[in-house]
Amino acid sequence: MGSFKGHALPGSFFLVAGIWWTGKYSLWHATRRNKSIGSTRLAGRSLQRRLEIIENSVVLFFSLVGMLAEQFLADGPKLQLYNFAEKHWEDLMNWQHATMYLFFGLAATVSLVLHSTEAAPLALDRLMLAVAFFNEGFLFLYHLHGRSMLDVHVHQLLLYAVFGQAIAAFLEVFHRGNIILELLRCTLTILQGSWFWEIGFVLYPPSGPEWDLTDHSNMMFVTMCYSWHLAFAMLVVGVLYCTVSWSVLPSPQQKRDGSSWRPHISQYTDKSSLSLSDHVAA
Amino acid sequence: MGSFKGHALPGSFFLVAGIWWTGKYSLWHATRRNKSIGSTRLAGRSLQRRLEIIENSVVLFFSLVGMLAEQFLADGPKLQLYNFAEKHWEDLMNWQHATMYLFFGLAATVSLVLHSTEAAPLALDRLMLAVAFFNEGFLFLYHLHGRSMLDVHVHQLLLYAVFGQAIAAFLEVFHRGNIILELLRCTLTILQGSWFWEIGFVLYPPSGPEWDLTDHSNMMFVTMCYSWHLAFAMLVVGVLYCTVSWSVLPSPQQKRDGSSWRPHISQYTDKSSLSLSDHVAA
Amino acid sequence: MGSFKGHALPGSFFLVAGIWWTGKYSLWHATRRNKSIGSTRLAGRSLQRRLEIIENSVVLFFSLVGMLAEQFLADGPKLQLYNFAEKHWEDLMNWQHATMYLFFGLAATVSLVLHSTEAAPLALDRLMLAVAFFNEGFLFLYHLHGRSMLDVHVHQLLLYAVFGQAIAAFLEVFHRGNIILELLRCTLTILQGSWFWEIGFVLYPPSGPEWDLTDHSNMMFVTMCYSWHLAFAMLVVGVLYCTVSWSVLPSPQQKRDGSSWRPHISQYTDKSSLSLSDHVAA
Amino acid sequence: MGSFKGHALPGSFFLVAGIWWTGKYSLWHATRRNKSIGSTRLAGRSLQRRLEIIENSVVLFFSLVGMLAEQFLADGPKLQLYNFAEKHWEDLMNWQHATMYLFFGLAATVSLVLHSTEAAPLALDRLMLAVAFFNEGFLFLYHLHGRSMLDVHVHQLLLYAVFGQAIAAFLEVFHRGNIILELLRCTLTILQGSWFWEIGFVLYPPSGPEWDLTDHSNMMFVTMCYSWHLAFAMLVVGVLYCTVSWSVLPSPQQKRDGSSWRPHISQYTDKSSLSLSDHVAA
Q1: Percent share of chain B, pLDDT over 90
Q2: Which end of chain B, N or C, is more open, meaning fewer C-beta atoms within 10 Å of its C-beta?
Q3: Does the residue B182 lie in any domain?
Q4: Structural domain includes residue A281
């Protein structure tokens, strides 16, 4: 993946995932706040379950495609791990990327099983997601040996988003359905996606002059640029959340005739939102 | 901001913010403990909401002023990011400081929206505050390359306060209205404010001789001095909290006729204080 | 233990422990979900208690054997700590390994006392386990001075599993009976076990050529290999959990006649599973 | 304090504090489990409050004595901070130690106020304790510049206990009265005390030959020795806890006639023990 396209591709995946999740969680949260509309609620749950199954099937599909692409495209190792003739490991980079995909594929598989059977507690899907992100960060951490300063730095910055996602997902094991943690994870996912694009532009500029990878002021700019990406991700999540909320919530007139209290109080009590998050009824 | 005034100014802002917050949280906590006085309570809530809106408007205003000042005053970059003629980044320091203000401005904007509409769970304002402090610490962390030993050290000490504030604010997402966490955050805010002043005195002494920035015993003194600033911040918060509590609480005679139990028991149960913190009723 | 056998032996112990725990926790979790079958439940609890006592007796026995073996086998220090004649410490490696066994022995002893008397809260056994794992990681951390790069790296990777186990066990003090944390700990235990075998194969290859301990691409391969061991451990735990669940749970027909709701709801509420974990009734 | 006595003295204080706390918390825990004996309970609470006041007065007294001793004994700085004649800081070590005492004094003062008035939530005393331990660790962290390897190492090991105490005390803010956290803190306090003695013996051997402070095998021995101190501290806490429990709990005969269930169930529910910890009634 040492190319512009090799960073733009995973970046796009994470961007799409982040935006999709923001929409999904905003929708469920808005639906939970409108409990009065009984019929929508039941429909919502069975819809929710079906959506989870579709989402995880898509993730699983792309994980498999990613693993196969890393192995068999152009200069892949074609499942050969060690070159006994020349006594060296074969394309370790491709193998490492395939390993990252493997963990996201595992997380999707477990989610599929959880949402289509009653095999295990639902919170397991968040643990698997946390493990997948942790594994991604873990492999990146030992991935940077011997590169130039700026190259190391832009990848280290990526780790803030990746480990942040792992921590947020792990906290969701204990606070499932907490909209704030969910939006935090969405923000970090979008941040990771847009930062992959930024890495592509910095290390493999598609047009214009090369960056000086050893200049310290470049490093300072890149650090600040990471903050801007974070602000941008927060903006995207904020706009999406508000759009979804306002299109789903009842109009202000409806809210004024007394039913407006329930959603409001539920804001303060994590407990209630905890157990209603995903499909309680099958 | 490489000047005495450049450190005294943000220091003063944080000092004022810390003292204001201490007063505010002490007042709400004292009011929550006097539940018997029903009329004050309702007044308190609508007052609380209005105060939040005023507070966040002020923060937003100063963030905007700060960003504009960093850009357009004296030697600012005037929105120019890259000097293509001389091929170097334009005033990265000013851009970094403007970025810090940006995040506090974002936090204030989100708080304004949360407290004037019912768009999202209130706890989001603490997450935004945590992100703003984290971003400040993050930018400072990569800000120190190539400076002299004592300069690096005084800025590193600042990070204890900044990341401490980020952690305390993040914990408040889950334990909203916990007076102990709130006072901890106030203490760290005052510590950050007074330490900014100390940095100004150490690096740009307005009078008297220069400090030897490479002397190890200066470094040891400065470390200890940080502890003294913490003790001072704790003292300020303690005195303010007691003053506010004693001026709001009913006199001992009133407390002795039976109603004194409720506030006492509520000390032990975080739950009750959790959901009453900010304006429940509009 | 500087030999292939010296790494395979503890590896096997951890593999067995991880598999045993997976089976045990899966069984208790499946039993808790079938509350309708009242008779099995009571039997289950007294069985549970007896199993804990047997398990901890076995652990205690092997800890003692381990300590004695480290001291008195072949080249052990035979309880001599300092060689006053030659003025050097006697076999510090063996003493360190014996210390690790000591802490697992202590944890087993405390567990034995907890499960056979009512002396202290049950959660203490998890704290003791956390301390035992922490102590193992702590000793390994200062164990690596002056070794070759790959040797240090494979042992550092082990620390992820060891400290992960310590953290998971510590969290169980507050979330006892949380099946997700339990399975996480099982996974990390199996990971530690299989990684001990891997260390043996890398540092003391029983057949074939030696590894180049200073080659960076070997290090990259080993890092990725750690991820594969983790995936393998997750697979083993997953298969075991499903096997146990499906052999214990009532058949789908039984589940369809109304009793299926209770286990399902209990998934969402940690509280209920919290207090039923180990023997509530003696 | 660069002497054997200078390490033995604080070591003894921490040993006494650890043993005292173990006894106190074991006693309250045992009393809480015997709720049936109504009369003892009321006595217990007022006794509890009085004990807290006495304990904190003693801590405050010794903190003041410690601060005065560091300032005015033999070679103290006598409140002089900077020697303007010779242009150097005066006895920074003594000032640092006095600062450590100051924070323990502050914690004791706040505790005194909390337990004799109803000014603030009780949990504040644990936060103050956490801050005092954190401050001790913070000052030690920057205390070690330019010393020999073994000297640095024995002090770094101390930090595990000190920061461990800070974390345990901070967790107690949220889980007050959790006997497991309390005993963990007691264990770490005893560990800190006995390790201060060990530091004295290693760096300033009162008899026998000097230690070679640059020998790596000495460092490995000392690391292992720390584990032994931890095991010793756990043993002391365990023996004390059992002694107190068995002397306070009703005899087995009494337990068999039905009342034995209540204490047993309370083991599993942190909630109940949470709010009864310290004096609920004044």
Answers
A1: 54
A2: C
A3: yes
A4: no
Q: Provide the CB-side half-sphere exposure for C89 (13 A, CA).
A: 18
Residue D83's φ and ψ, nearest 5 degrees, are -90, 100
Burial of A191 (0-12, 13-18, 19+ CB in 10 A): buried
Domain total in chain D: 1
CB contact under 8 A, D238 and C142: no
Mean predicted lDDT score pLDDT of chain D = 84
Q: What is the pTM of this model?
A: 0.89
Tokens 């059977």, located at residue? A117
Distance CA C118, CA A166 (A): 39
Question: Which residues of chain D have a Cβ shorter than 8 Å from any chain B Cβ?
Answer: 88-89, 92, 95-96, 99, 102-103, 106, 110, 118-124, 127, 131, 135, 138-139, 142-143, 145-146, 173-174, 176, 274-275, 277, 280, 282
Contact: chain C with chain D (3+ CB pairs below 8 Å): yes
* Helices B124-141/B92-116 angle, 10° precision: 170
Bridge partners, A88 (sequence order): A83
Q: What is the pLDDT of residue D16?
A: 96
- Would you say A171 and A164 are in contact if contact means Cβ atoms under 8 Å apart? no
The span from the CA of C164 to the CA of C231, in Å, is 15
CA distance C276 to chain A (A): 16
Question: Which pLDDT score is estimated for A182?
Answer: 96
| C28 belongs to a structural domain | yes
Chain C contact partners (≥3 CB pairs within 8 A): A, D
CB A140 within 8 A of CB A162: yes
CB contact under 8 A, A123 and C180: yes
Task: Print the domain residue range for D114.
Answer: 4-276
Look at residue B194 and tell me if it is in a domain.
Answer: yes
- Structure confidence at residue D1 as a pLDDT band (50, 70, 90): low
Complex confidence, ipTM: 0.86
Put simply, the answer to whether D268 touches C282 (Cβ < 8 Å) is no
pLDDT at C62 over 90: yes
The pLDDT confidence band at residue B138, using thresholds 50, 70 and 90, is very high
Crossing angle (nearest 10°) for helices D216-248 and D4-33 = 30
A119 and C242 within 8 Å at the Cβ level: the answer is yes
Provide Rg for chain A, Cα atoms. 21
Q: Which of A223, A231, A241 sits opposite B142 (nearest CB)?
A: A223
